[in-house]
Structures are given as C-alpha cells and as structure tokens.
C-alpha cells in the first residue's frame, strides 16, 4: 500500500493549503482531510471526512483509512466560525488526547507530525536572548494558546514513549504571518491603534505561511540522506523585528500604556474579537521572544524563503495602508522610545523604518 496521509484541521485555510500541497507530493497515494466542519475552500482530490477529533470516532476514521502518516494541524489559538475560546481549548487539548489514543492503537501509523508554537518558551524578563529547543521556560504559561501548546507537547512526548516505532516530529512555529494568516497576533496588528507597554520594545520573530506549508511537507515525508525529520524543531524566518518597527511598517500608531492599562486594554479587545489576547500574549508584547533555528536548517534540512522582515512585509501589504504613512510614524515612534525609562526591551543600536 502506498502512503496515506491524514490531516486534521483541514477546514482552516492553512490546513486546506497543506492538503492541496500533499496531493502534489511524490509517493503520496491518498490524503484524508478531517475537520468538525465543512471547509469553505477546495481540497482538490483529497477525501474529506467530517469528524470531531474530540470524539472517539476519530479512532474509527484512522482505522478505516489505514493512514500511515498523521499531520495534526488542529492546534490553534483562534476559533473557527462562531466558536469560543473554551471550544478551541477542548479541540487543542482533548482533541489531541483522542487523536493520540487512536494513533497508539493503530498499527498502520508510522509517522506523526504535530503543529506547535514557540509560545511554549513563555516570555519573561530574564529569559535568554535566544531560546533553543532544550531551553526550559522560566515560568510556564498560565493560560491561552500557550498553555494549550505546553499540554499538547506533553501528551505527544507520552505518545512517543509508548510508541517508539513511530517517528514523531514537533514543529514549534514562530508567529505565523501572511495574507491569509488568522492568529491572535494578526488580530492585534489589525487594530487601528496598537496598545503597547510603556518602556518596552520587544523583539519578535515571524514565519510566512508559505514556509509553514513547505516545512510541514518536509516533516511528513521520508527524510533525505543527511537529514532527520523526527524530534522537536523551532521554525522561524531569519532576523527579528522590534514592535515599533512593525507598527511603522503597518502605518498604525502605537499607544504606549502602563502595564496595568495594557492588561485592561487586552480585556477590551477580547470583546472586539481578539479572542486569545491572554496574559501570555501581553507578555510577548512586553518581553518578546527569539528562538534559534539551527536545528531546523542543519537537521531537518529546511531553509525558509521568507525572513522575519519579509514575512511581515507580505502580511503588511495584504492589510492595505494604515491610518498614517509609515514615514510619518517613524519620527514619532523614535521620540516616544527615547522617553522610555531604562532599556526595557529596547535594542538601542537597531533602528529601521
């Protein structure tokens, strides 16, 4: 029997793109796309199965299809359609548990790829400048998608111990950007005014959605000579951007606020649709996060097409002009930064429009 790949989260745009990408992959004989709702986008020649991974029925789907590769993309921070944060958490955590239980019972499963996030490292003032895959978080995330990702990875490690015959690959993605990306951070960047923490200018990393699709393809296939696609890998574009650079490239003014006021603003924007503007999201916008991608390049054998700046530029173009021209914002942002007490999250030698 040829290779059969089962993909969860197929109703989301990223899942749909990856399903269509798999259909062009040599050696793939069949793709089974799974989600609890019908996708609005086309899935090409893939077989769509409507199933909720939170329910035991996912085990029957896996058994009937005989899939030998499972790509778990239904781990996300944004609800689909009219879903709530509670339903997202259930899908992330309970759904992963059910899926892994089904994989454990299936003798046909030989490869598992799981979409995770660099948010598992947290964001704290004394974090290392760059996190590697073995860096423990100074403080575990206490809520939101970051906490979900920590729990999901814990269940995946348990599965890997119980099924050592299955090649398990966990991809920790930096913040995903692109014309079609839908994440808590893209919702934040869509605000007409960006609330920021006074005195801090965090370093951020991004990965383009095109590169996400490509690295998922690498992780789901048999490794080439000299590479290994099992283990845990940070995935991000080269370089970093400061939050102030992001705001001026978008043409959106920032509103520096004391940390308690930003926390209040986070509660406000949650009611406006930024569903996962959690304390962890605020910590990211305070302290930032940067990860090392050496293992992605040297071990997994993947080199992103887009840098962090390139991914953000493509995202910014897709959003149209902001309230103010970027050049008009540059001077104002620099003046505000110069007034900020201490060094906070600033990189004093770095300035770009």
Q: Which regions have little confidence, pLDDT < 50, spanning 5+ residues?
A: 340-353
Tally of helical runs: 12
Largest sheet: 7 strands, parallel
Q: Which shape, going by the Cα principal axes?
A: globular
At the fourth level of CATH, the homologous superfamily of one domain is NAD(P)-binding Rossmann-like Domain
What's the CATH C level of one domain? Alpha Beta
Helix proportion range: 25-40%
CATH topology of one domain: Rossmann fold
By helix and strand content, what is the structural category?
alpha/beta
Summarize the structure.
The protein is α/β, with parallel strands linked by helices and 353 residues long.
